[in-house]
Every structure is written in C-alpha cells, then in structure tokens.
Amino acid sequence: MDYLYSNRRDYFNRDKSLPNCAFCDALAMPDDYNNLIVHRGEENFVILNKYPYTSGHMMVVPMMHTCHMEDLSTSALTEMMLLARRAMATLERVYQAQGFNVGLNIGAAGGAGIAEHLHLHVVPRWQRDTNFITVLGQARVLPESLEDSYNQIKKAWK
Questions:
Q1: How far apart are CA 50 and CA 58, in angstroms?
Q2: Structural domains of the chain, count
Q3: pLDDT tens string 66-106
Q4: Is 119 annotated in the active site?
C-alpha cells in the first residue's frame, strides 16, 4: 500500500495569533530534526521547510528577525546568496535536482507564509515533476518523510 505524505493542512490551520516566530523559535533550539536547521552561518541559517512543496525544500533565513530586506547588512545578504548556492549544490548531490525555484515572498500580500521574518526559498525541481494530485487532490506526494530528508541533507551538507 502506498501512502501520501501531506501535512500542509496543519500549516494553513495553525494559530496565526501566537506572538512567537517559528524561525526564531527554531533558532533558539539545538540543531536536530526537531528544529530542522541544517546549518548555521554567521548571519543566516538554513532550515528545511516543515511543510515542503517537495523533498529537500529548504529556506535560508536571516538570524535577525525582520521582514524588510533593507534591514539586512550587505554581509548578511551576501551570505544569504552564498548559502542558497550551497543549498542548491547539496540538493543536486542528494536528489539529483535538475533545476530550482529560488525566491522571496515578501509580506502577506506577496505570498509569505511567515510574513514577519524574511526567508529565501530553495526548492529543487526536476523535468516533468508536475503532478495532477497537487491540483485535483490538494495534496503533495513526497517520496520520503521530512525526517529522512533532514538526515540526508544534514549529512550531505558537511
């Protein structure tokens, strides 16, 4: 029997009135599967998306809690891009990704799920990776669990 792994309903139904920031909360925890942080840099960290669009969906997040790019130093912005590049290289090794969607959704109107803390998405892609179930069934089909993704990426990051 095949199982579908999709937990995005939890994401959409979460209590958005809570004062805590999911990224800041993760940053305060030790790095392991519970916080999904793969790497900590000087001014940014790399974390797996808890509600991924596909296996390996990572985000580069500034340690500074801000929703404005102009608040970040040149060194923080530079490190963000360098970590995105390293994330892509890691995803090419682990998943043989053939392409990527990389980008920022700034503000709720811009599509940001966590609008209060800027973050850069790195989503691996493959030729012909579209799937009808995402459109018709409003579910994502992932070939592995989030924990398996975390363990593989964390190991390959080193």
A1: 9
A2: 1
A3: 999 999 999 999 999 999 999 999 999 999 999 999 999 99
A4: yes
